[in-house]
Design goal:
The chain has 206 residues and is an alpha+beta fold. The protein contains nine helices and six strands; from the N terminus they run H-E-H-H-E-H-H-E-H-H-H-H-E-E-E. Strand 4 and strand 5 form a beta hairpin. Helix 1 packs across helix 9.
């Protein structure tokens, strides 16, 4: 008699549990990080509150967060932020005339618990190769109901109490991104929009 294969979700559950076990000890070597990053959003989210809420990303998910998990994506340079902001535009080959207006700001931050996924030591502990972090096809995998490694990493990091991930940019080989989880910020950590007063309170949408 042919042996029945275990359901796919069972295999994914075991893989995710193993990843969690490997990630947890990294909390003992917390990485403080401070500086300035850059964030680009559509007009709908161009208010001081929405810039740091992560609600937009939670609606459909992103490379580093599954749907339902709030995350704020920012980049180490303005150029990387622009490339990341229009990744869907480039990926799906939208026509230039469909380009929507966006607002870009600088974010100043001071964090105490950042998981650096650009660190060779961290990746070795997690048993994850760097190429897997920038691999294409994650959108298609989600559409098929398949597990996405980077989303699992983001979900587990948030569950374990990391405030943010420092990750390589898939759109800019020389760039890096910061993925913030606003729900896990420690009391002594902070993130602020530079020149927040100049942002519109109620963007006009047409």
């Amino acid at each position: 008699m042919m042996e029945a294969k275990p359901p796919a979700h069972s295999s994914h559950g075991r893989t995710r549990a193993a990843l969690r076990r490997r990630m947890a000890p990294l909390l003992e070597t917390e990485l403080p990080l401070e500086g300035v990053v850059f964030r680009s959003v559509g007009l709908r989210y161009a208010t001081g509150e929405d810039f740091l809420g992560g609600h937009g990303a939670s609606l459909y998910g992103g490379r580093w967060n599954p749907p339902g998990l709030r995350a704020v994506y920012a980049s180490g340079s303005p150029i990387t932020a622009v490339k990341e902001a229009y990744q869907s535009f480039l990926h799906y080959g939208f026509q230039p005339q469909t380009l929507k207006a966006r607002v870009q700001v600088a974010l100043r931050f001071h964090l105490h618990r950042v998981l650096d996924l650009q660190s060779a030591e961290v990746l070795m502990q997690l048993r994850v190769g760097p190429a897997a972090l920038v691999a294409e096809g994650w959108q298609e995998a989600i559409g098929k109901g398949e597990a996405v490694l980077t989303q699992d990493l983001g979900q587990l990091a948030c569950e374990l109490g990391w405030e943010a991930l420092r990750v390589p940019s898939a759109q800019d080989p020389e760039g890096w991104n910061l993925v913030l989880f606003p729900q896990t910020l420690l009391p002594e950590s902070w993130v602020e929009v530079v020149d927040k007063e100049s942002l519109p309170r109620h963007p006009v949408l047409t």
